[in-house]
């Protein structure tokens, strides 16, 4: 298993992730250009780095209202623009990518960044990209499983011999370039329900689970069964080998009310654009409660939520998505400022980190 | 409000006749609303496969979008094999979880036999409730003898359809009021 490089000084790593959505800002009805959006994501990575975030991740989504389809290219730019933050994906769609190509891309990002690259491999939540990239959505399940297996194999040695159904066989072929330490941290992206968590456990790979909203306790079962399944299959479930990361929408402000008012229009309009259904206001109003997974609130409320979740999950990384729904850059900076000045140091202190 | 009248059958005339009556009543008495009438006979719907409804094209996208945009939906359906017809179940399967949240639904069922009186209660209402609709409790059940050559000929049924039309709108307005009142408390 690849070294996971979880920050030893921090009981909980902090990360930001973007799906690269490109939606109007509901506050002024305008949409920035694709060019500006991509440049702002790169700027955000730099800004997150100076605020002591450990990870910055960019995902690919091949549908309307998104702009980081070529996420590895954006991650290459981030690798060059930053110095210490880990450069990750959120996620890379393994099902519709050649794992060899994916590995080459991330090994290259690892070389550019000086060993900071990692892959979070997912299996897509939309069907459009299967058609776009020439795959049959009926193979949805198997495409992902086979290709993810190959990706893990590629990480084990420099030369690969492999045979499968969805890609040409590989006969003792050397994969180049190789990452700095010959291996990359590879996580499996998992939705909330337990079925995928069980698969991650069976495979013995680190898990990044989405905890977008609803009662935080409802995700505990998936995390518990992930570790339990991994143990049953003979894997070492220590934090160093099989860390767990959670991903949630995040918005921090000076007060609860400011946080609610600051996030709601973006979340509601963003959801309408990409899912065709807004976010119910009544449900959102309950979000500051510490037991609710959606990370919205004042700094103290966010701290309380993260600590509560840490008690439930004993996870090693928290990933926040702050730019969903056309959030203007100044607002993003403010959230990063609050996280960097208060939330990250307080949580780290509470959990006994340095 | 956006009002959608759905004749959810791909065959026959009874459901269409009943729903056309509701549509006509709405046009005459409530033209202040945006009223849409969809007859499944005219639509070619794809089978649900789990994708988000926005990823469909053609009639499937048009019909699902009309449902998602509606505040009030009148659903009329015939009874096949003691249940709702496949085209109607398929429509629900095409939609997201909680798709009917904040929507009010009025129900009309048509049947060849009195035996099917409770089908709306037993098969449709559980689905609508699961999908978070506000369901108007009284439904209209119509059998063969109320129809003649594309018209409704029983006064009892006409009165019940008119009542359902009004009651559904009233309940929708009441829920809208409650929602506005609740949301005004949040201050965002």
UniProtKB/TrEMBL annotation, chain A:
Identify the taxonomic lineage of the organism of origin. Bacteria, Bacillati, Bacillota, Bacilli, Bacillales
Which keywords accompany this UniProt record?
Answer: Monooxygenase, Oxidoreductase
What's the gene? luxA_3
Q: What is this protein called?
A: Alkanal monooxygenase alpha chain
Recorded superkingdom = Bacteria
What CDD domains does the annotation carry?
Flavin_utilizing_monoxygenases
**Record's keyword annotation contains Oxidoreductase:** yes
Name the SUPFAM superfamilies on file: Bacterial luciferase-like (SSF51679)
- Where the record annotates domain Luciferase-like, the positions are 31-314
TrEMBL record, chain B:
Entry protein name: NAD(P)H-dependent FAD/FMN reductase
Q: Where does this protein come from, organism-wise?
A: Phocicoccus schoeneichii
Could you list this entry's UniProt keywords, alphabetically sorted: Flavoprotein, FMN, Oxidoreductase
Name the domain of life this protein comes from.
Bacteria
Task: Check the UniProt entry and state the signal peptide residues, or none.
Answer: none
Residue ranges of the NADPH-dependent FMN reductase-like domain?
1-145
Instruction: Please give one Gene Ontology molecular function term for this protein.
Output: oxidoreductase activity
For this protein, the record's PANTHER family field holds: FMN REDUCTASE (NADPH) (PTHR43408)
> Which SUPFAM superfamilies does the record cross-reference, listed alphabetically?
Flavoproteins (SSF52218)
